[in-house]
Amino acid sequence: MMDHMMGWGSALALWLLVLLAVVAGVVWLVRTVVDRPAPNGSTNSAIQILEERFARGEIDRDEFEERRRTLRP
Fold this sequence. Notes:
This protein is mainly α. It has helices at 2-34, 46-56, 61-71.
């Protein structure tokens, strides 16, 4: 009877190790994806993004000036 219980303990330990490895792999994958830089390789500041939106015509001059004043201390 004791040998039978030891078998279950070993199987449980193995499954726990497998589960731990899967969880560690998922955590690593998520951290890798989240920490990845922007596709174009740039890290634009808020002011740069605002200037780009103004240049593309997405916002008018008044909105640009108002948001720029808000962003700059």
